[in-house]
Each structure stands twice: as C-alpha cells, then as structure tokens.
Specification:
The protein is of the alpha/beta class. It has one domain: Pyruvate-ferredoxin Oxidoreductase, domain 3 (3-Layer(aba) Sandwich). The chain is built from 8 helices and 6 strands. The chain has a 6-stranded mixed beta sheet with strand order 2-3-1-4-5-6, with helices on both faces. A hairpin with an 8-residue loop joins strand 2 (36-42) and strand 3 (51-59). The longest helix has 14 residues, at 19-32.
Length: 196
C-alpha cells in the first residue's frame, strides 16, 4: 500500500459495459488478499446507456466507500467521454486507465449534443499518469465485445500488482458458464496488456 492506509478506485462507464461485474470481482479478490473493502455503485440510467460508476476503497480498515472529487488513486474509464466526465475525481498524481472506445449517448445520436473531440489528447495534457488500455479492441479480436470488462480487470490486477489472489477462479465463478472460456482468455490478455 506504499505507506498509505487505503486506496481509492473509481470505475466508470456506461450501462451494459460490465463495470459493476468488474467491481464485484475486483472487490472479492481484494477481500481474498486480506484487505478490508467497501464498494458502492451508482447505476444512473444504466439500462439506457447512461453513466454507471462504482467506488471501491480498500486497505487495513475502511469505514465508508464514498470517494469525493480529487480522492481517487485510480480512475478506470471503460469509455473515453466518461473519463472526461469523471476526471475531477482523480487525485493529483493518480493513475487514469482509459479505454479509447467511443459510445454515443442518445443526445449525440439525435444531434442534440456533440461527442467531445480530442479526449485522450486533452486528458494527456493534465494527467501525468494516463494509461491507454484498448480493452474493447482486444475483446473484439477475441470475438466477444462483452468481455471488454475482463480485459480491463486483467490489466488492473497487473497494474496494481495484485496477482496473489485466485483471479481466474473468481472470473469463472462470477461470469455465466457459457462465457467462461472467453472471459478467462480476456482476463489473460488484459494481464499481458502493455498500456502506454
């Protein structure tokens, strides 16, 4: 834990990307590693592609899961516009892991709003620890776009040095049996993913 008593992780995306499932597996793995863990989830308009976020705090003793602006040690964005929306929650010196995937919300699709341009470039200018993780691209290469979340989970486990838990067993336990093999492969590909 590098001298700190707790770590704060914020995972953000849109409905249907599996952010909550990823958070549940990550939280259980952290418990298995001996940490006290608290998790909170906000669904928003998840069923309609709205914003979804989960907050995870872990450490020796955690009393509440809430993460405020400027408090996230790690911000994981499953979609790049969500990274822009949630950037203020990242602490100075924190790590932003961003999948450059674009998902257009209804206002953009109807022409009532425009999708933000140059998101990665804009964030690169203000975040010193930005990691681009093309998880959706990897999941598509595996023929399973829905496994984007397991690619990101594997990348997070590797990035945080949390390899000690039985992550593959957890993935197998939490995902549907028919999707088990591809999700395990997605996790492995994520763990080996080199993020720039």
């Amino acid at each position: 834990m590098s001298g700190r008593e707790e770590r704060n992780i914020l995972l953000v995306g849109v409905g249907g990307q599996g952010t909550i499932l990823t958070s549940k597996i990550l939280s259980q793995g952290l418990v298995d590693l001996g940490y006290d863990v608290k998790m909170s989830e906000i669904h928003g308009m998840a069923q309609r592609g709205g914003s979804v976020s989960t907050q995870i705090k872990y450490g020796r003793k955690i009393y509440a899961p809430n993460i405020g602006p400027g408090e996230a040690d790690l911000l994981v964005a499953f979609e790049k516009a969500e990274a822009l929306r949630w950037f203020p929650w990242l602490r100075k010196g924190g790590i932003l892991v961003l999948d450059p995937r674009e998902i257009y919300p209804v206002p953009v699709l109807t022409g009532a709003a425009t999708y933000p341009e140059n998101v990665v470039e804009s964030l690169s200018a203000v975040v010193e620890n930005l990691r681009v993780a093309p998880a959706a691209k990897v999941a598509n290469e595996l023929g399973s776009p829905r496994s984007q979340n397991m690619v990101l989970l594997g990348a997070l486990v590797s990035l945080l040095g949390l390899e000690g838990a039985a992550w593959k067993d957890l993935v197998a336990r939490f995902v549907p049996p028919k999707a088990r093999d591809v999700n395990l492969l997605a996790f492995e590909r994520g763990a080996a993913l080199v993020m720039r």
